[in-house]
């Protein structure tokens, strides 16, 4: 991916403004699985009131290309402490995926993938970063391809990425989820708190609700969520009604209902499906299979089209003896009115000649001495 940076121009007087580098930080980054890799964006958290956001900008560094400064300057809007700012590539896809309204839309500026870095600037200087500008994140701890990464509450902005400050979901969490809620795990959007408090699950409806927790750390899980019961012999592990994790016992066998040996009890296909019992059950058909027990619906009869494998024949059909044969292709003139009509020709090759046609009556005004076939045009 080529380098593109959101470039921030600071050209205003700072006198009288209380904004500082500690007033805003990056709290989330995500790379979605909808068309075009959407939604793509970041979440910012406003720590203290900011009278003028135009002091801030965002920069992206792709793959191994180092940072080139800031590319997008925020408008001169005010931001209130405790609010979240969503900077996205596309507002529609963001709304579809998260059910929220985007704050700022930057379009193709956010054409990053899950191996690219993002920087937050204040007065033209980097104050927070996700990833490592100049480094391809593929396979690294901060990679978020088709996934997300969310800042742990109570952690501070840093000009170098700190893994202890982030929950990285792992790649492909959003593939094939069509909404954040459908992902496992879902990104805990808008849950970051500047004060660390007591981390834990603050959702009283969750299985692991912690009444002592004051900051949601994204660890909540509920009945029906995917889980891992630790048993390699089970599949489709989910959180049960008693909040335990359990899966279905893995029973190997053929799971294709169309196979001869379909096993209704099987939960894991082991590649043993057999289709040898499927064939034509009609004894009058050319391809009748006396060993078949399930009709394939592909019986062929005399007169049906077939392919005799000969490129020189046309109109191949099953003959009375069930062999497949076609008409040998004999090129020539097939127009019976032509001078060179060929009764043996099966395909017209465009060679028909009509020069022999004309008036053969020597008494006619338009008598044609060269004509050998009268065409009824004598006058």
Condensed summary:
By secondary structure, this protein is an all-beta fold.
Describe this structure in words.
It contains one helix and 24 strands. It has one helix spanning 91-98; strands spanning 24-31, 40-46, 56-61, 72-73, 84-88, 104-105, 117-122, 125-130, 148-151, 166-168, 199-200, 215-216, 234-239, 245-249, 252-253, 268-269, 278-279, 294-295, 313-318, 324-328, 331-332, 347-348, 357-358, 373-374. Strands 6-5-2-1-9-10 form a six-stranded mixed beta sheet, with no helix packed on it. The relative contact order is 0.08.
What is the fold's blueprint, element by element?
Layout: E1 24-31, E2 40-46, E3 56-61, E4 72-73, E5 84-88, H1 91-98, E6 104-105, E7 117-122, E8 125-130, E9 148-151, E10 166-168, E11 199-200, E12 215-216, E13 234-239, E14 245-249, E15 252-253, E16 268-269, E17 278-279, E18 294-295, E19 313-318, E20 324-328, E21 331-332, E22 347-348, E23 357-358, E24 373-374
Parallel strand pairs: 5-6, 11-12, 15-16, 17-18, 21-22, 23-24
Antiparallel strand pairs: 1-2, 1-9, 2-5, 3-4, 3-7, 7-8, 9-10, 13-14, 19-20
Using the CA coordinates, give the radius of gyration.
Answer: 38 Å
For the biggest sheet, the summary is: 6 strands, mixed
- Overall shape: elongated
Low-confidence residue ranges:
1-18
Per DSSP, the total helix count is 1
Which structural category fits the helices and strands? Answer: mainly beta
Strand order of the largest sheet: 6-5-2-1-9-10
Average pLDDT rating: 90
Strand count: 24
Fraction of residues in H or I helices: under 10%
How much of the sequence lies in strands comes to: 15-25%
Spatial gap, N to C terminus: 81 Å
Question: What is the chain-wise order of helices and strands?
Answer: EEEEEHEEEEEEEEEEEEEEEEEEE
* Oligomeric form: single chain
